[in-house]
Amino acid sequence: MNENLINFGRKKAEEVVFRDIDDLKHTFDVVPDLIVILDTEF
Q: Is the dihedral of CA 8, 10, 16, 22 positive or negative?
């Protein structure tokens, strides 16, 4: 029984981590890339 509880907790923790990773990826996909060219002679 205790092992099942540990596995359940581990499974829930993995779900949270993967959800957070997907959220982070989505955040960076939504923000457009910013490219800056710095030229001292411009």
A: negative
pLDDT class for 40, splitting at 50, 70, 90?
confident
CA distance 7 to 26: 29
What are 13's two structure tokens?
């923790």
Per the structure block, which two tokens stand in for 32?
């457009």
Q: What is the pTM of this model?
A: 0.50
Please write down the HEC assignment for all residues of the chain.
CHHHHHHHHHHHHHHHHHHHHHHHHHHHHHCCCCCCCCCCCC
Structure tokens at 29: 């996909």
